[in-house]
Amino acid sequence: MSEPLIIRRRLPVGSMGKKANGWWGMLALIATEAALFAYLLFSYFFFDVQYGRGWLPEKLPAFRLSGPNTVILLLSSVAVWWAEREARKGNRARQCLGLAVGLLLGIAFVVIQGFEWADKTFTPFSSSYGSLFFTITGFHMAHVIAGLIVLASLLLWSALGYFDDRRNAPVTIGAIYWHFVDAVWLAVFFSLYVTPHLR
C-alpha cells in the first residue's frame, strides 16, 4: 500500500544514464545563451579596439567587490557540484546541504553585485561604455537569478525526497546551468574588470 504513495511522490524523470530530454534541452539553451554573451562581449571589444583608452571611464572597474564576488560564485559552483555528486550516491541530506550552500552563495553574489553597481560613477545612459557594462552585467545577473530559482526548486524537491540514486537527472541538469552561469561570469570578469588594467 505504501509503494504507490512513494511512486506518486517522485517526479517523472529518468536518470542521467539515458541522457534525459531535459539534458539535451539544457545544452541547446546554453548554446543560444552563450552566443548572446559572445555577441555582447564582441561588442565590448569592438568598441575597445576602435576607441582605446578614450572610451573607458576615468575610474576603472575595481576588484574590491568584484574579486571576492568571483570567489563566492566559484565556491557556489563547487557546492552545487558536490550536491550533484551526493545525489548520484542517494545521500539526500548532503545533496540538500550542497544545494542550500550553493543557493545562499548565489544570493550573496546578487547582493554584492547590487553594491558594485551602486558604486559606479557611470550609468547605463552616460556613455557607450556604461551602456555595455550594465547590459552585459545585467544580462548575467538575470541568468544568475534564473539559476537561483532552479537551485531553490531543486532544493525543495530534494527535501521532499523526489530524487534518489537512480532518479536524479534534474539535479545534474540544474547543475549544468549553474556551472554555465559561473563560466560566463569568468569571461565577463576578465573582459570588464581585468583587461582595462592590462593597458
UniProtKB/TrEMBL annotation:
Supply one GO BP term: aerobic electron transport chain
Gene3D superfamilies, per the entry: Cytochrome c oxidase, subunit III, four-helix bundle
* Annotated GO MF terms: cytochrome-c oxidase activity
Show the GO cellular component annotation of the record.
plasma membrane
Topology of the protein relative to the lipid bilayer: Multi-pass membrane protein
Q: Where is the Heme-copper oxidase subunit III family profile domain?
A: 24-197
Residue ranges spanning the membrane: these are 21-47, 67-84, 96-118, 138-163, 175-194
Highest taxon of source: Bacteria
Record keywords: Cell membrane, Membrane, Transmembrane, Transmembrane helix
Q: Name one Pfam family in it.
A: COX3
Q: Where in the cell is it found?
A: Cell membrane
The leader peptide range reads none
What family does this chain come from, according to its entry? Belongs to the cytochrome c oxidase subunit 3 family.
What name has this protein been given in UniProt?
Heme-copper oxidase subunit III
